[in-house]
Amino acid sequence: MPSESDREHPVASGQPDDRISLRTTLDATMRLAEDQRVVLELVAIEGLTYDEVSRVVGIPVGTVMSRLSRGRERLRDMLDAPAAVHLRRVK
Fold first, then answer.
1. DSSP state of 44
2. pTM over 0.85
3. Alpha-carbon distance 16 to 7, whole Å?
């Protein structure tokens, strides 16, 4: 059974690869367009329904669905893309 600290910081007790994966996902999420990120966070993290997100954000339900779909697709694309290699030039 998870301890109190595990519930507060679920990544803290995870394996190193889990922490890297979570960090990569969070970084990619922050690179989404704000309108897509907000809807994705409200649905996926906060657990709001499409109707609730519609009322909170002040947009039609169809727009919520479109932004969520585009945001999920963009996030998948970013996470599936091979990581860019950053090399420093040494003189």
1. I
2. no
3. 18
For residues 15, 18, 20, 24, the Cα torsion angle rounded to the nearest 10 degrees is: -170
Q: How far is CA 88 from CA 24, 56, 71, 85, 91, in A?
A: 21, 45, 32, 10, 10
The tens digit of pLDDT for each residue in 54-67 reads 999 999 999 999 99
For residue 3, the Cα-to-chain-centroid distance in whole angstroms is: 25
Cα separation, 43 vs 49, in Å, equals: 6
Biggest alpha carbon distance in the chain?
A: 58
Report pLDDT for 6.
47
For 35-79, which CATH class? mainly alpha
Whole-Å CA distances, 83 to 11, 48, 78, 86: 22, 32, 9, 9
